[in-house]
Write a structure and sequence with these properties.
The protein contains 9 helices and no strands. With 277 residues, it is an all-alpha fold. It is globular. The relative contact order is 0.13.
Length: 277
Amino acid sequence: MHELPLLIFTLLVQGSVGITLFLTLAAPKAKAHPEARRQLLPAMLLACIAGGLGLMASTLHLGYPLNAFNALRHVASSWLSREIVFASFYLAAVGLCTLIMLVRKTLIAFLLPVAVVLGLIDVWCMSAIYAHSSVMTWMHFNTWLMFYGSVGILGAVAMNWLPILRSPGVTQARQRLMRLAVMLVIAIVAVRLLAQPAYMHYLATASLNGVVTLPHQPLDAFNQLSGLRLFSWVVSVVGALLFAFSGWRNRKNGVVIGGLLLILAEILFRFIFFSIN
């Protein structure tokens, strides 16, 4: 699959932004508790590593990776240039916060919301690259729903898996954050599902108009993957329900299995998204 680097890039960066989002929500409670503050470090490192690997993967999509710097020359007119700029700013902010935490054992909390804002803008630019392309299956608000949905779902899964706010004195804060993660996952899956009829109607209209994007055949590829799409939705819904039920009742095994199903669904959705041949 020629678009595999983009699949890896988009999911890793969006997952990184999602982790940083939940770190931002956890930081106010953790800042006053030394043990809880130290527990944020693994998640901060994971956010940095995921974002860095994602940016590295994006260069593999280029015919000549060293030309990646040329993409910065058109920030005023190119969504790709804007995406690279905001991704770099995001990684710099979260990286600086993590470095200070490693070296000085101090949490510079204001850097986390700054990083989240930069990351969310980056995801908007990332979505706009595809929505403003000539590929019919991308030219819809569904692209933004899928990309921002990955931010929330991957961040929520990481929040529940990582040892964040598990110290005495902040356990109630962790429980509230876990329930927020559960509600966010359910809301994202529900909104995505509700948007599908409008998306399918748009694609059907495009098909009737005989729209073809050469040399790609995105509508044909989309129709050929109908079985995989259905399977992906089933995995996503089952994963969300299991994740929500288990997270609400603090059942670790269910949270792990539900989270794995949600991650699998996101990978499948992204594979379908980039399958345009």
